[in-house]
Write a structure and sequence with these properties.
Strand 7 and strand 8 (249-255) form a beta hairpin. The chain is globular. It has helices spanning 2-17, 28-32, 54-65, 71-84, 128-138, 146-155, 166-177, 257-263, 265-274, 279-293, and strands at residues 46-50, 105-111, 116-122, 143-145, 204-209, 215-221, 242-245, 249-255, 303-309, 314-318, 324-329, 335-338, 340-341. The chain has one domain (41-347): 4-Layer Sandwich (Glutamine Phosphoribosylpyrophosphate, subunit 1, domain 1). It has an eight-stranded mixed sheet. The protein is an alpha+beta fold and 348 residues long. The two termini are 30 Å apart. The structure holds N-hydroxy-L-asparagine. N-hydroxy-L-asparagine (SD4) binds at residues 185-186, 202-203, 221, 223-224, 233-235, 254-257.
Length: 348
């Protein structure tokens, strides 16, 4: 087991350095195409979420928003729905574990007045987003991690329960047999492992604007499957996986968290909107920043941004094809849209 671990460790580290297959050139047609018309600003509430399971999260959030509820309550409800969804191997109780077989969860939540809370590497607590909210509301802190986060959750009355499902344990055991396997984002669902494919999705990022024009967001994930024990991605890091400002808008991210961390990416998207970019333009420019910083790695990694501005306009962009996002408001109840991508081909 020790030598296997050493091998896995070195293969993880080598993954970034390995020779990369040539990728079709930047899709000129895709990159130059006229931007899609900006969605009309709405007068009312709207919620948007990453990936196709975002439709279910939006519906849970809409039960709050549609009744005139607050954006913060809505995003928590949406994130809790995803965390409880037993079909989802990348968020909450059904998530896949890390390299050592331990399921660790990350989540954050933020409102447009700058109030925020987060937990990282949390074990055996089913609703990390709600623990994040308690961190925000009941402590002077923003982020609690590991054993301390779990201790706080228990003190707050969250039940401690073993979360790893039989299916996730079986997937982990299967992965351990596969010496050639290299962790690739979006490939957690081994039965359908096509990175970037819309059926192979990850983190839930959810953003909402309520009838009062207040914004909020949440982000929740089990992170990259088979990650090193203790690894924390972007999702619980305010500014990386999530950022919200009532003066401007909100952004969230999915994909390889290390790239979001390097670029303070969700903060970047919001700041670009502050400078006058539409949500679509801001997401696209943030993707360009990721590519400029790590052009080789960008050929095989997925990075996706989703943003909403204070007028309710929505935009999204990804490095590679396959990123879909869900929009829900009084008119559209379960719209699922394809985000534009820098590279026109799906990763293989
Ligand atoms: C992470 N960003 O832990 C998350 C995983 C994810 O699409 O979003 N994958 O890095």
């Amino acid at each position: 087991m020790t030598s296997r671990r050493r091998f896995l460790h070195s293969s993880l580290l080598a993954a970034g350095a390995a020779a990369l297959p040539a990728l079709p050139a930047l899709a000129a047609a895709d990159a130059k195409a006229a931007p899609p018309p900006a969605p009309k600003a709405i007068d009312g509430a709207r919620v948007v979420s990453t990936w196709d399971f975002g439709v279910g999260a939006n519906q849970a959030a809409w039960k709050v928003l549609g009744e005139g509820g607050a954006a913060l309550d809505a995003v928590e409800a949406g994130a809790r729905w995803a965390e409880a969804d037993l079909c989802n191997a990348t968020v909450g109780r059904c998530g896949n574990p890390d390299r050592d077989g331990v399921l660790t969860l990350d989540a954050s939540l933020m409102d447009g007045d700058g109030r925020c809370g987060a937990v990282a590497a949390l074990e055996d607590i089913a609703h990390p987003v709600s623990v994040a909210r308690r961190v925000m509301e009941r402590t002077p802190h923003v982020l609690l991690v590991g054993a301390g986060a779990q201790q706080f959750a228990i003190e707050q009355g969250f039940p401690k329960e073993p979360l790893l499902t039989d299916k996730a344990r079986a997937a982990w055991n299967e992965w351990r047999k596969t010496s050639k396997y290299q962790p690739v984002i979006n490939a957690e669902r081994l039965d359908n492992a096509k990175p970037g494919d819309k059926h192979n999705h990850d983190t839930l990022g959810i953003l909402a604007i309520d009838r009062a024009g207040k914004l909020a967001g949440a982000c929740t994930t089990s992170g990259m499957a088979w990650k090193l024990h203790g690894r924390v991605g972007d999702s619980p890091i305010i500014g990386a996986g999530l950022y919200v400002d009532n003066e401007v808008g909100a952004a969230t991210a999915s994909g390889v968290g290390e790239e979001m961390l390097r670029n303070a990416a969700s903060f970047l998207v919001v700041e670009l909107m502050r400078q006058g970019r539409s949500p679509d333009e801001a997401c696209r420019e943030a993707i360009d920043r990721v590519v400029r910083k790590r052009p080789q790695a960008s050929k095989t990694l997925q990075v996706c941004f989703l943003a909403i501005n204070k007028h309710g306009e929505v935009g999204a962009h990804a490095l590679h094809r396959g990123f879909v996002y869900a929009v829900c408001d009084a008119g559209k109840r379960d719209a699922l849209l394809d985000a534009r991508s820098v590279y026109a081909t799906e990763q293989t």
